[in-house]
Task: structure prediction
Amino acid sequence: MKRLLIVVDMQKDFIDGSLGTPEAVSIVPKVKRKIEEYQAVGDEVIFTLDTHEESYLNSQEGKKLPVVHCVRGTAGWDLDHSLKEFQGVRFEKNTFGSAVLGEYVTEREYESIELVGLCTDICVISNALLVKAFLPEVPVLVDSSCCAGVTVKSHENALEAMKMCQIEVL
Result:
């Protein structure tokens, strides 16, 4: 059995674009090293992409977070330039978690599933809980040094919430 690394939403808009933060910028090299480590031993790496359309501001999310971001086909939607070269299935998702990702992981056998990326307090926690719900007996891990939240406090709160849900925080 292989391990799986899920790289969550490491897109320009979340790193140094419309919703970027210094904390997000700082994790990019660590995430790159983590991907390299997984791929060097033949483990699987997949990516999620927050994906919105031009009509984003008319969506429920857009009304609550009126900052246009990750619009399909724009520079902000792309993976960070240092991560684009990596191979791996890409899951476009128009909301925080991906049900298609949940279905995908149930079709394979993994010894563990690790998540890294952005934002800890929204999409990382959503996908980690989703994966845990689909595969309750598979260890799900989150590397906190390879994640960043909207704020430092919300990042820490999300890590604590995941621990309570039997997700191992590294």
Observations:
- The chain has one domain: 2-169.
- The beta strands are 2-8, 44-50, 90-93, 110-118, 140-148, 168-169.
- The chain has a mean pLDDT of 96.
- The first strand starts at residue 2 and ends at 8.
